[in-house]
Design goal:
By secondary structure, the protein is of the alpha+beta class. The chain has eleven helices and 22 strands. Helices cover 23% and strands 31% of the residues.
């Protein structure tokens, strides 16, 4: 909690307004061509109710407070009865024009407003959920939350509405939260509410892990772009995934909750500390850094369950160049090191050391600051996307890559070696 409070204080006052007002956030996103739901109508006073023609608003649509939180005061209208001014909400309840007027009036009276903000109401398009996630949800739309710090996505989860949460993606009400591996977009761990760790969906034999989130790189990119546009140093971006349009920002939160740690079974503090001081050139660079630093190797964990592979201490590997062509290279397994290393000469030959490929500089005890770059290798038919140190020390040796523990998960090292 204290660590989060410290980092949220780094946000400039100019950015904090976007965490309190959905209208200001939407104006910002629109001006920066960042996808978000279309606004059909804004109510600032009770008299504005006289201007709206409910029958002309495209379905499905949402009525919500401009400054609400936790889904309070949100009504989703999915369809309208033919030849009647009657709408059906996500639970199948019938609402008349009078019902819609009364609910909007309650929002304007401040019933659902938080943060002491102005009492305004919004009608906006409902973002249809991508079927990959929709099939796990009860009525509502699953969302994705990305925590961004210093333009780097550091942690992610998806929140799945349940019957207990009444179709809302709110863990406090009983929704399901799933941690997501930053590198692959694959779900890892499950949480029901805020206390119960789960491995399967309730009343189902379906596992909560192994779900591939669609448009994953785009999801990370839009979160970082939104943070940069608003000027946030630390924030949470809530995102819906449309089947055709891809990720769309729902709102920005300058003080995101801590349940994301429980869903990922990992602490934010250490990840935040790893990002401090890293220079991030642009959103794309920030996404690369996040995927390199916080990969959980979940795909490798799944594969390891299918059977561990045995490798020698000097395996022949393929290193892919800038054009994704493989090159045979002798490597050496060094379990004393965490991150793998590649010779500077080889990295240059394969055009992996261009400025755009540089992730960050890492301080080493003997060699000082060394560049870290993206590298893709193939080891025993397994393709591994990783981040390697670039060192001159390997320029003259027999092996030009040293494999660290980070890239050896799912492998057994043979004790016998002919070398």
């Amino acid at each position: 909690m204290n660590a989060r409070n410290f980092y949220t204080k780094l946000n400039p006052s100019s950015a904090r307004q976007y965490g309190f007002s959905k209208l200001k956030t939407k104006a910002l996103l629109d001006s920066n061509d960042i996808a978000t739901a279309k606004v059909y109508h804004v109510f600032s006073t009770q008299s504005d109710l006289e201007q709206v023609i409910w029958e002309q608003i495209p379905l499905p649509f949402v009525i919500k407070p401009a400054s609400g939180s936790a889904g309070k005061g949100v009504i989703i209208l999915k369809e309208k009865k033919p030849d009647e001014s009657v709408w059906l909400d996500q639970d199948g309840n019938e609402l008349t024009k009078l019902d819609l007027d009364l609910h909007t009036a309650n929002i304007l009276d401040g019933e659902f407003t938080t943060w002491g903000s102005s009492n305004e109401a919004i009608i906006e398009e409902m973002i249809v959920s991508h079927p990959t996630l929709a099939k796990y949800a009860y009525h509502g739309t699953p969302d994705i939350r990305i925590i961004v710090f210093n333009s780097v996505p550091i942690m992610a989860m998806t929140r799945i509405p349940t019957q207990e949460s009444r179709g809302r993606a709110n863990l406090d009400l009983g929704a399901i939260g799933l941690g997501i591996d930053i590198a692959t977009g694959i779900t890892t761990h499950g949480l029901r509410g805020k206390t119960e760790h789960i491995t399967h969906f309730p009343d189902s034999k379906k596992k909560v892990n192994g779900i591939k989130i669609p448009f994953w790189n785009d999801v990370l990119a839009i979160a970082v772009q939104a943070a940069a546009a608003a000027g946030f140093v630390y924030m949470g971006a809530d995102i819906f995934i449309h089947p055709d349009k891809g990720p769309m920002i729902v709102e920005l939160n300058g003080f995101p909750g801590l349940s994301i740690q429980l869903c990922n079974r990992a602490g934010l503090k250490r990840r935040l500390e790893r990002i401090e001081g890293i220079e991030v050139r642009n959103p794309e660079h920030g996404v690369k850094i996040g995927q390199a630093l916080f990969a959980e190797r979940f795909a490798d964990k799944i594969k390891s369950e299918e059977g561990l592979r045995i490798i020698s201490t000097r395996p022949q590997i393929a290193v892919f160049d800038e054009e994704k062509q493989p090159h045979a290279v002798l490597s050496f397994v060094d379990t004393k090191r965490f991150r793998s290393a590649i010779s500077e000469q080889l990295a240059n030959e394969l055009h992996l050391l261009d400025f755009d490929d540089l992730l960050w500089q890492q301080q080493e005890v003997v060699e000082g600051k060394l560049p870290v770059v993206e590298v893709t290798i193939r080891l025993e038919e397994r393709k591994i996307h990783t981040a390697m140190l670039v060192t001159k020390r390997l320029n003259k040796g027999r092996h030009r890559v040293e494999l660290g523990r980070r890239d050896l998960e799912g492998f057994l090292i043979s004790a016998d070696d002919d070398e």
